[in-house]
Each structure stands twice: as C-alpha cells, then as structure tokens.
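Good morning C.,

I know you're traveling, so I'll keep this short. The sequence:
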Amino acid sequence: MSLEHYQVKKELAFYEKVMAPEKEADGLVIDNMKISKSQSPNHYNFQVVLVQQQLKKRYAKGYVNLVITGSLAKKPSQLKLSDISDNTRKSLSFSFKYFQVIEGSFTLPENFSPEKIHLSAILSKTKWQKHQELKKTLPWMVE
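The tokens, ready to paste straight into the viewer:
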C-alpha cells in the first residue's frame, strides 16, 4: 500500500467518524496509531490515541490490545501483544473523558515479516457502560 493510498484511507476514516458514528463504540474512536523503531533490533514502540467524541460526564474505561499478522518463517502467522511484549493489561488500560495516549513496546521474532496490525479497544462492562469492542485494522507502517 503506497503512502498516498494510506493518506486517502486516513482522511476517509476521519469523515467516517463524523458521518458514520455506528463505526464507533459508545462515542469512543481509535484516532491514530504510530509504530516506530527503537535502537534494538526488531524492537518497536507504539502509540495509540483514543478519543471520546460524545461529550459525556462519564469516563470511557477499558484497555487496548494488538495482534500483528504476517509471515513467520514464510508461513502465515499472527502474534498477540501478550506474547511479544512485557506490557501488562494495566499499562494498556484507559480511563478518560476526552482523549488518552497509550504507549508500549514489543519485539518481533527475527524471522517474522509483519503485514497488518489489528488493534482493539475494549470497553469494560461497568455500572455506566456496556461491554463493547472497537476494532481497527491498519497496514504495517513504521515511522
């Protein structure tokens, strides 16, 4: 996927947030995700930006999860964040009114070729919110 194609998809996603609110979970939107290389080989940092579009008095509470799909030793494979990272569910949790940035890191196996990132924002069931899962699939792009 070219950078130009990705930018067009990103703009489309913005307009979908405005015009198609059914693609969000209770006002929660995955606004952005960035992946960057660290100094260590095969080690990456990630940043997820979550936004609550509906101005409520309640906090959005839950956690994020990542699954990376690609090829491991030339065979289709998927890696769960919990298998390639020291991030805990607590470090991936969110509780916010307007927006929150969640950061973490992971290490890919040497013979893994990443293709896509499947990002989930899971709203935990509480007294004030029902359990929901918001999913977004992104191409593997490192900044």
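Safe travels,
E.
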